[in-house]
Amino acid sequence: MVNTDGVMIVDKPAGWTSHDVVNFIRKRFGAKKVGHAGTLDPLATGVLVILMGKAVKLSAEISGQEKEYQAKLTLGKATDTQDSSGKIISEKQWDGLTADSVRSAFAGFLGEIEQVPPMVSAIQLNGKRLYELARQGKEVERKPRKIEIKKIDIMDISLPNVSFSVTCSKGTYIRTLCHDIGEVLGCGGHLSGLRRTRSGNFSIDAAVTIEQLRDKQCVVSLQ
């Protein structure tokens, strides 16, 4: 039995919801209070900050810190969820794009910008999450929010795919960033891969995998 008060960094696998990980940790360690500091979409992998016991009260503080991601943008196809899980709603040619035009579009999003949250998000409206309304086929007006893209680096351009890393403020939706870059380039685009590598002071280097946690011999030291 481990001490069940503290912070655990889990490398969330693709296909798991953040709630799935919380439930797994609760059962694995017999912990009564388990939460997380910042949701990751099921398709995403990487840093999920798990809070146990007394540390649960730190959720708002930790989730409010900056994040780092590695992501892949696929150009030419826009989807209704702004990522690869959704239905294609428009498809346009991207053949005329160049590496320079892609870099220029990315550069335009650096700094403090306004971003309209996607319908597939946990933002509440009149007591309902937006993603719940989206599942019902409803779309409502969302007000733009100020976010900050503190750093954005293109790692590889293999059109129609662009791999990049980004450091951003709380409340930034990478799927929407990909969608908006696609709009600027005139061909549309969607998020096709996402990995969170840091949340505040918690890095992927300190993360433990679900496979490791399944091993009863695994020794976990909470932070």
SSE blueprint:
Elements: E1 6-12, H1 18-29, E2 34-36, E3 45-52, H2 59-63, E4 67-75, E5 77-79, E6 88-91, H3 99-107, E7 111-115, E8 124-125, E9 128-129, H4 130-135, E10 145-158, E11 161-168, H5 174-185, E12 189-199, E13 202-203, E14 208-209, H6 210-214
Parallel strand pairs: 1-14, 3-12
Antiparallel strand pairs: 1-3, 2-3, 4-11, 4-12, 5-6, 7-10, 8-9, 10-11, 12-13
What would you note in describing this structure?
It is a single chain. By secondary structure, the protein is of the alpha+beta class. The protein has 2 domains: 73 residues, Alpha-Beta Plaits (2-Layer Sandwich), CATH 3.30.70; 133 residues, Pseudouridine synthase. It is 22% helix and 36% strand. The chain contains 6 helices and 14 strands. The strands form 3 sheets. Strands 1, 2, 3, 4, 7, 10, 11, 12, 13 and 14 form a 10-stranded mixed β-sheet that branches. Strands 5-6 form a two-stranded antiparallel ribbon. A hairpin with a 2-residue loop joins strand 10 and strand 11. It starts with 5 loop residues before the first strand and ends in a 9-residue tail after the last helix. The mean pLDDT is 89.
